[in-house]
Each structure stands twice: as C-alpha cells, then as structure tokens.
Amino acid sequence: MQAAEQPPADATPLKRQLRLAERRKKLTSMALVLPVAVLLFVAFLWPIGALLKRGIDNREVMDGLPLTTSALKGWKADAGTPGEPVFDALAADLDAGRGTPKLAAAAKRLNVEQSGLRSLVMKTASGLQAPAEPADTAPAGDGAAGAASAVTPDAARPAARDRILAIDERWGQSEVWQAIASNASPYTPRYLLAALDREQAADGSLQRVESDQAVFVDVFARTFWMSGIVTLVCLLLGFPLAYVLATLPARISNVLMIFVLLPFWTSVLVRVAAWIVLLQGGGLVNQALMLSGVISEPLQLVFNRTGVYIAMIHILLPFMVLPLYSVMKGIPPVYMRAALSMGCKPFAAFWKVYAPQCMPGVLAGGLLTFILGMGYYITPALLGSPGEQMVSYFIAFFTNETLNWSMAAALSSVLLAATLVLYVFYARFNRPRQQRGAR
C-alpha cells in the first residue's frame, strides 16, 4: 500500500495559527491604545492622585525639624514642657536648617496651627547663631592658660533649654510643643476636616470649629444649591428647545442648531463681560424694561445672584440641549401617533410614552450641567458679590493668594468626591432603564 501523505515538517496546526493570529491582534490593539493610556495617566490620573495626596500630606515639619519631631514621640501635652533632649534636638535642627527652604516651610506650616509660630521659629533660629570667636584667645607666652581658655567657651556655654528660653519664653508653653508634636506624622486629616468645618480635639475626637471659622460647609451648600437651580432652569428651557429641534425637518433644525452651538465659539470671559454690559443699571435690559413701562427705575441685575444665574444658564444651556436632542432624535415618531390613534390624549401620550424615553437625555444633561456648574469660578467672581462665590473661588484663593496648597487640595478632594457620588447615583438610576430597554 501507498503510505499516507505526511504533512510538511514546517506545517503549523490550525489551532496554533489561530492562537498566534489572536495574540498578534491583541498586541496590535494594545500598541494602538498605549499612547492614549499614557496620555490619560499623565494628564488625568496622575494629577488627581497627586492632588488627593497633597490634601493629606504633612511632611513640612518633619523635613524641617527631623530631630525635634523624633524626640517628641511619646510626649504628652499634659506632661508639661519637654525635657532637655528635646531642646537639644530643636537647637540642632535650627542650626542645621537656618536659612534653608525646609525650615521656612516648617515654620509656615506651624503658623497654620498657631498664629505667631513662624516668627517664633525664625527668631529662635537667628538667635541661636553664635557670634564668631577670635582665632587665638590665649595671651602670648602662657600656654596652659591659653589651652584652658580655648576650651572654656564651649564648656561654659548655657544648655540648649536655657538659650532657647532666653531668646523667647514662649518655648516654655506646652501649646507650642503640642503644635510641633501634632505634625510629627507624614499624613494628617487636618485639611480634609477643615474643608468640612471640623477639627480634631486634643483627645482625638472630632468637633465642629468655632462659628466664626465655619465657612466651608455653607460654601459647599451654596455651590450645590446654585448648581441645582441652574440645572433645573436649563432643563425647563432646554427640553422644549430640544423637542422642537428633534421634530422639525432636518434643513430647519440644522440651521437652528447653529445658534445652539454658537456660544461654544465665544470665550466664557467675553460672554461674562457682555452680560455685565447688558445687565448693568444703564444697560440694554434695564433700558428696554423702562421704555416698555414694566419698571420705573433700573433693577439690580449685576453683582448679585441674579446676574450669576443668568450668565451661568446662558453658558450651560447647550450642555443640556445636546444630550436631550441626541436622545429625542432616536425616538421613532410612530410611538406618539400610535398612542393618539388608540384614543390617548396628546398630553397623556407625551407624558406616558415620549417623556420616559427622554430620561437618559435628561439624566445625562442634568449630570453634565450640574458638574460643570459646581466648578464655575470666573462667572461668580465677575458677576457676583462675595455672597455668591463658590468652592472654586476658595480653591483659587488658597492656591494663588495664601499658597496653602494643602487646603486647596482638600477642598478639591471634597468636590471630586461629591462629583463621584453624583455619577454613582446616575449610573445606578440609569442602569435599570437601559436593561429594560434592552429587553
């Protein structure tokens, strides 16, 4: 019999060929996605991670006073003033850090804990600087006396505790040492608690700050309230506009869509400046109302919450219209005609048939508008009074004015957490609707 034909020696089984082809396809896809992933990490994830870390970072005092913070471990405020080793460590740290940025940063950080500590640290560092001594302090021809006098200044120098207390008696107060000891950890919840108007008591419990210092909870409440009002008004104005655009013929709706997109082509700063001109006492809005007889004297429409609402609604309205329009455009019109043909009244057909199908657009537009409204800074700063400033104003203040980046990072972290909570609620509320739509 003729032997069965054998496959070539270099032949590869089909299963292995498919596996290799699939692997090459995955590697090619990963190579195409890798630049985008790197860009996403560098431009988005890494800055957010650095921001969150900055809100709890507390290394300034440890870097500026390493020996002192180490010597204070285990010390309690009720034990009174620390012992001589702690003063020795403080003197060594101040001598080593005099004139360096690390000591300046540590002094500034301590001043946040207790007013006046920055000047105390810098004053003590300058006071500990010993004056230069002559090279030869011994009289000529007296070797023994000269050797003794060369040793005497160091031996007779006062202890570090006496020297530091002689410079400033505040070093004898336990509150000063408590401020240093409380910053002996590389991380602290102080800034996050301060962003929520809370602080940590001496016993470790949480308590509300004094009423004259409790500002940020009200600021967050104002931010959420104003963003909610703007979102609601944008929904009331954008829903009928999106409905008209979705039901009109394409030739007309495309022309009208240009007017919806027109604000995107104009700078936010230019639009805010234009609203200042329009809404001021002698502006076109007040003049038109007075000429029509609606009012007898100009209304205060600028530098208050009314002006902020008007400008924010004008800027954010397209972000509500576009998601609604995209959803409404995909709803077949035969649904409404079928409901009407079965005897359903027009409003009932709209409310029971059409409106539920628009909910994904309402949720997406509402979420987008609300999140963008929470981060507004220029519009309230230019059109509002101090009572209309939102969280972003204080973030910019701590970043640019006081250079307290940790506090700015803490406020940003709370705002980011609120945004993530809103997104989680949106995802949980919208998922059942998507599943019902799929079925």
Automatic annotation (TrEMBL):
Subcellular location, principal: membrane
Signal peptide positions on this chain: none
A cellular-component GO term for this protein: plasma membrane
Region (Disordered): 128-154
Chain intervals with Low complexity compositional bias: 130-154
Keyword field: Cell membrane, Membrane, Transmembrane, Transmembrane helix, Transport
Keyword Manganese: no
Membrane-topology annotation of the record: Multi-pass membrane protein
Full protein name: ABC transporter permease
Family from the record: Belongs to the binding-protein-dependent transport system permease family. CysTW subfamily.
Lineage per the UniProt record: Bacteria, Pseudomonadati, Pseudomonadota, Betaproteobacteria, Burkholderiales
Biological process terms in GO annotation: transmembrane transport
Organism of this sequence: Derxia gummosa DSM 723
Transport keyword on record: yes
TM annotation in the entry: 27-49, 224-248, 255-278, 308-328, 361-383, 403-426
Top-level taxon: Bacteria
Record localization: Cell membrane
Domain ABC transmembrane type-1 residues, every copy: 220-426
